[in-house]
Specification:
- Strands 5-4-1-2-3-6-7 form a seven-stranded mixed sheet, sandwiched between helices.
- Helix 2 links the parallel strand 2 and strand 3.
- The chain is globular.
- It contains 18 helices and seven strands.
- By secondary structure, the chain is of the alpha/beta class.
- The two termini are 23 Å apart.
Length: 370
């Protein structure tokens, strides 16, 4: 009997009712049996450490209805929306058992999203000079793209290019090759508690811990920025011309990460982009590293059905499956990429004051909820 599997690319920072709604709705509408999630590890796409570590978040996701949680490599998880989507979608397609990519969006309209992807592709092909001209005026890439589309399509609703989940949805669609796509309209604020609400409330309830975490992270970031040159900063994936000099000139004045970002950000270089740049600088991640990154299956948590899915992946797919970190670090196919995941866990544990050995990727094992 054929069994249908849905894939999602996510952060679960943390898992909440909106995620459960997406999973339940997608399974019902798509008549699906299983759900596989490709989840960011310990650092997020917007450029900051996760509130809870990847093992806790993966366990909660399985308890909430996901059958198998796989880690999205760090080099993709703290990258641009396009690189984030590329990593997640390509892992799902290489598993060989996923049928549909499901995602939430503010639009909720797959036809509208696909039409927008066509417009973006048209701009990249037919209007590169016009796009460069707008960028030269100091606009960020998303803002420049939106402005250009509005000029050639007067009736275009540019809000589709400004909402965060729409932006990711467009990138998912740009990178899909073999999967079907399904989107649901995100439930509006006030109907469910959002991940940002949960993080905010947790921080308000734990002010001392929050201050300690944030200080440790800032100390690590500024130490790295002091140790490397402006040219090395400019090589990070999210950098741009002159940002290295700007960061180096501001680092001694900033008293917190927030202040440093605010001193550096501009109309062209947004808050999220600067945060991503700082994470990438901390780990030394360049576009070359991202472009040459390997894809692999790194299970974090699974239930009984997820264990069955994992066995099927090993039988049907050629993508490497990570059973042991020491072995993975000796595997020439994936060693240069997975080493960043291992390092990310170590850095995360320093930030959160965890035991570096007990919580390392060498010791932690996938969580089986059987």
């Amino acid at each position: 009997m054929y069994m249908k599997t849905i894939g999602i690319v996510t952060e679960f920072n943390p898992f909440h009712d909106g995620h459960r709604y997406l999973i339940d709705n997608a399974k019902k509408i798509q008549y699906a049996d299983f759900v596989i999630a490709i989840m960011s590890g310990n650092f997020m796409q917007r450029g900051y450490p996760a509130l809870f570590d990847k093992w806790q978040r993966a366990k909660r996701a399985v308890e909430g209805g996901v059958n198998l949680v796989l880690e999205l490599p760090l080099v993709f998880s703290c990258a641009s929306a396009g690189q984030f989507a590329y990593g997640g979608v390509n892992i799902l397609e290489k598993l060989g058992i996923v049928d549909v990519l499901a995602f939430g969006s503010e639009s909720g309209n797959l036809k509208q999203l696909k039409k927008t992807v066509d417009l973006i592709t048209k701009i990249d092909i037919d209007y590169p000079d016009e796009l460069k001209e707008i960028l030269s005026k100091g606009y960020s890439y998303p803002a420049a793209r939106s402005k250009l589309i509005a000029s050639i399509e007067p009736d275009f609703d540019d809000s589709i290019l400004s909402e965060p989940n729409n932006i990711l949805a467009l990138e998912y669609l740009r990178h899909i090759d073999t999967l079907d796509a399904y989107t649901i309209k995100r439930i509006g604020k006030g109907h469910v508690e959002t991940a940002s609400d949960i993080r905010r409330i947790w921080k308000e309830d734990n002010p001392q811990k929050t201050a300690e975490f944030e200080q440790r992270y800032f100390d690590l970031v500024r130490s790295k920025l002091l140790l490397i040159s402006s040219e090395e900063i400019d090589k990070t994936a999210s950098a741009g011309e002159g940002l290295g000099n700007k960061i180096k000139s501001e680092i001694r004045y900033a008293q917190s990460l927030e202040e440093l970002v605010m001193r550096v950000k501009s109309k062209r270089y947004t808050y999220s982009r600067i945060n991503r740049l700082l994470v990438q600088a901390l780990f030394g991640i360049t576009n070359e590293i991202i472009n040459e990154a390997s894809l692999y299956v790194r299970p974090l948590a699974f239930d009984r059905q997820g264990a069955t899915l994992l066995r099927a992946i090993k039988e049907l797919s050629d993508i490497p499956v990570v059973d042991s970190i020491p072995k993975a670090l000796k595997d020439r196919r994936i060693a240069e990429t997975i080493k960043y995941d291992v390092l990310a866990s170590d850095i995360y544990n320093i930030i959160y004051g965890n035991d570096l050995y007990k919580n390392s990727d060498f010791v932690q094992k996938p969580i089986a909820i059987i």
